[in-house]
Amino acid sequence: IYFPTPLCVVVRVVLLYLSVFPLCHQTHSLQDFQRPAVSSKVFIQRDYSSGTICKFQTKFPSELESRLDKQQFEETIQTLNNLYAEAEKLGGSSYLEGCLACLTAYTVFLCMETHYEKVLKKIARYIRDQNEKIYAPRGLLLTDPIERGLRVVEITIFEDRNIGSAR
Amino acid sequence: MLRRACSALLPPWMRPWRWSPVWEPLMPHNDFSSSPAGRGRSPRRKWETFPGRNKFYCDGRIMMAKQTGVFYLTLVLILVTCGLFFTFDCWFLAEQLTPIIPVIGAVLFLFVIGTLLRTSFSDPGVLPRATPDEAADLERQIDVANGSTGYRPPPRTKEVVINGQTVKLKYCFTCKIFRPPRASHCSLCDNCVERFDHHCPWVGNCVGKRNYRFFYMFILSLSFLTVFIFAFVITHIILSNGSRFVVVCFFSVWSIVGLSGFHTYLISSNQTTNEDIKGSWSSKRSKDNYNPYSYGNIFTNCCAALCGPLPPRWLPSGPLYVCMLVATGFAQLDPRVEKKKKPAAFLLRSQYHTDQKEHLVSFCSFPVPFFRLKTHSHHLLIQFQILPSVLFKV
């Protein structure tokens, strides 16, 4: 299907406008992509000792010893574990949500978010805060585990020359 | 809330789309730098195929297995049977008995179709493949564990203790990850699926963590529907005293009812079909063998399986993502006609990641009305409809 040329131009302009508009408030993220070189990456694996619930190991990796306090790292991971436990919690409210969704043939999720999605947004905010306050000043970057399918927490270690540089 | 509902009415390529790594993620991340299971494809052609053998439609909102023929057969069988029932039997029964019968039949039919489509079209819980860095890190750890001799004795397993029971986690050579407990690799779809139950050709998809409840509701409602239709057709025959040709397959009633019963047992004991077939938690294996995932009572097991929180899908998608990339300067179009069958293939260079990997946009013409953006480093899979392709005729 090909539009006639003037309409094609109009369509392009409209679609570009629509595409740029939602990003207006996100232009600050452009600076984030002028990154220093990656030195290495550490992967915090899942802890399956309590079953299939989402829980990460709190063992402090040796590669981070020079950059980060053990206590801060454990606190971050423990908070993440608690947040994921809250997302996956089985209880009255999750059953109610499930039943309501089933009765409305899942159309209710066109209008509202699931409890899991709400908690995932909370986790994303928490990781962003942690990165800004603790990890970025030390030349580290926490990647949201959702981008790796909740399999690992990836911590990127950047080269030494960027420690302490203000962003 | 209203915006989201309204945007659902627009055609997908016109919907305003919000970029968020946790908003409606749809597809697993794919590691394109490693060849999928050594099928002998050259590195340049890797981008053509999704690492798993899945088909995507409507911006990636619909995800199905490669072979969908049997799914269409299921759909046709249900539609034809119900169509015949409503056409020939409902009028008679509504007059002779009560008009509620066709209403109940219609509700059951809609529920069956709804749950079938939901099962077939949802992501079953596909695990994203490991990124190259992750795979390398795992290899390093395995080397250290084996003494770095360079020879790695297969198979690679890791043992974990879950609720007192020792469970072996196997390493998936295709996805380059240690599979979580209860996950399994589907050879038909070529994906690791969480809480893998089975691959169902009748629904044209795997049944896993995210769509098991829909699958169960589908077979349960289908068994009610088949019994309902069968019973009322027999009633019609008896009441009308005529010799009518019964168009409902008697045996399908028993097989569907049997399958529902089997899955009811699985849900109440919190097992997957995979585990039951292998006898993973059977007491015949050893006296101490028990299911570590069971919550202890049938009610909690059922509630957890059917009404528990629904895990999200992984990747965002949307028709305007490439436009955004181009408009914001993250990507530049670099025309490079590569494929014989496709009208045009463009190479998108992204500055998004530090490793400066390239990703490709390929155009697929009819009968695949979308094109895919595959990235090596950012691990995104975006679906578009053919209409915005006019944007790229530079």
Automatic annotation (TrEMBL), chain A:
Signal as UniProt keyword: yes
Keywords: Golgi apparatus, Lipoprotein, Membrane, Palmitate, Signal
Subcellular location: Golgi apparatus membrane
All copies of domain Golgin subfamily A member 7/ERF4, residue ranges: 42-154
Lineage: superkingdom: Eukaryota
InterPro entries: Golgin_A_7/ERF4, Ras_palmitoyltransferase
N-terminal signal peptide: 1-29
GO cellular component term, pick one: Golgi membrane
Membrane topology: Lipid-anchor
Annotated GO biological process: Golgi to plasma membrane protein transport; protein targeting to membrane
Stated role: May be involved in protein transport from Golgi to cell surface. The ZDHHC9-GOLGA7 complex is a palmitoyltransferase specific for HRAS and NRAS.
UniProt family annotation: Belongs to the ERF4 family.
Protein name per its UniProtKB record: Golgin subfamily A member 7
TrEMBL record, chain B:
Coiled coil: none
Gene Ontology biological-process entries: protein targeting to membrane
Annotated keywords: Acyltransferase, Membrane, Transferase, Transmembrane, Transmembrane helix
Enzyme Commission identifier(s): 2.3.1.225
EC class of the enzyme, as a word: transferase
Membrane disposition: Multi-pass membrane protein
Main location: membrane
Molecular function GO terms recorded: protein-cysteine S-palmitoyltransferase activity
Secreted among keywords: no
Cellular component terms per the entry's GO annotation: endoplasmic reticulum; Golgi apparatus; membrane
Reactions it catalyzes: L-cysteinyl-[protein] + hexadecanoyl-CoA = S-hexadecanoyl-L-cysteinyl-[protein] + CoA
Source organism, top-level taxon: Eukaryota
Annotated localization: Membrane
Domain Palmitoyltransferase DHHC: 168-278
Cited InterPro entries: Palmitoyltrfase_DHHC, PFA4/ZDH16/20/ERF2-like
Transmembrane feature ranges: 70-94, 100-117, 214-239, 245-268
Cited Pfam families: DHHC
Sequence similarity: Belongs to the DHHC palmitoyltransferase family.
Written domain comment of the UniProt record: The DHHC domain is required for palmitoyltransferase activity.
PANTHER family tied to this protein: PALMITOYLTRANSFERASE ZDHHC14 (PTHR22883:SF28), ZINC FINGER DHHC DOMAIN CONTAINING PROTEIN (PTHR22883)
Name of this protein: Palmitoyltransferase
The organism of origin for this protein: Oryzias sinensis (Chinese medaka)
Upper classification of the organism: Eukaryota, Metazoa, Chordata, Craniata, Vertebrata
